[in-house]
Design goal:
The protein is an all-alpha fold. It folds into 2 domains: about 80 residues, no CATH class; about 150 residues, Arc Repressor Mutant, subunit A (Orthogonal Bundle). The chain is about 60% helix and about 5% strand. The protein has 12 helices and 3 strands; from the N terminus they run H-H-H-H-H-H-H-E-H-H-E-E-H-H-H. A 3-stranded antiparallel beta sheet has the order 1-3-2. The longest helix is centred in the C-terminal third of the chain and has 34 residues. It is globular and about 55 Å long.
């Protein structure tokens, strides 16, 4: 039995079904598409998620695309367009739809709105994870009572396989395709720039003065990573908005 709900682990021994390693991803794409060089870049963009690789391979094969062309479109277009449900597959949903269903199920049970704030913030921060204390500051959960609510929210998101704890137990990690799906949703609803702006402002107290940077180098490294991520997503969102306006005016 497979499930994204970790509550079922109480029924028996659980085995995590993870992502492919890079060699498996490349071999799978090559077999699915019949193409050679370039598969590694697509696998990197999809973070080796098997279902995403299957749906990407189907699009590449059916549309007779090169890996390079597919990769350009994957980065520019919504996931639902470039990772649609494969009609020949028994799995009933696209990657994006499956991800959103898991997130929305948690959001529906959350009456204080904390889930939306948490996933929106993590989706625009660095891919390699967010320290629990940094996240608390970003979502406004700095006091102990609010931290209790945040921890409960994180627990529900981990249970739904939306998030995982990093090995050190101090940082929370979101798979890159989950983050991408959330950014696509915020772009569609017009909330992406607000999420980026709010998160950027919330991080300001954590910036370290230049003369203290070496002594605080570990914390500074994480903040730099988050800042680069926010800048990259803001630039991409701005570019997407300009392209959408051009297309609209041309029509």
């Amino acid at each position: 039995m497979t499930s994204t709900d970790r509550a079922f682990t109480s029924l028996g021994a659980d085995i995590d079904v993870g992502v492919f390693d890079r060699a498996q991803s490349v071999a799978y794409l090559a077999k699915r598409t019949g193409l050679g060089d370039g598969a590694a870049a697509v696998a990197e963009e999809l973070a080796d998620l098997p279902l995403a690789l299957a749906q990407a391979g189907s699009v590449i094969k059916l549309q007779n695309l090169s890996y390079g062309v597919y990769l350009d479109r994957l980065r520019a277009l919504p996931l639902d367009e470039m990772l649609p449900r494969d009609r020949g597959d028994a799995y009933p949903q696209s990657v994006a739809a499956a991800i959103l269903l898991s997130i929305e199920a948690v959001e529906e049970e959350d009456h204080c709105g904390q889930t939306g704030r948490v996933v929106s913030a993590i989706a625009v921060l660095a891919d390699d994870g967010v320290d629990r204390g940094v996240l608390a500051l970003v979502v406004g959960a700095a006091v102990e009572n609010d931290r209790h609510v945040l921890d409960a929210t994180l627990g529900r998101l981990v249970e739904a396989s939306v998030l995982v704890w990093a090995r050190d137990g101090h940082a929370i990690v979101m798979h890159r395709l989950v983050a991408r799906t959330l950014r696509d949703r915020m772009q569609t609803t017009g909330d992406l720039f607000a999420a980026i702006t709010h998160t950027s402002i919330a991080l300001r107290p954590l910036f370290v003065p230049e003369n203290q940077a070496w002594d605080n180098r570990l914390a500074s490294t994480e903040i730099v990573g988050h800042s680069v991520s926010l800048w990259r997503h803001a630039a991409h969102a701005a570019e997407s908005r300009v392209l959408a306006r051009i297309v609209q005016e041309a029509a």
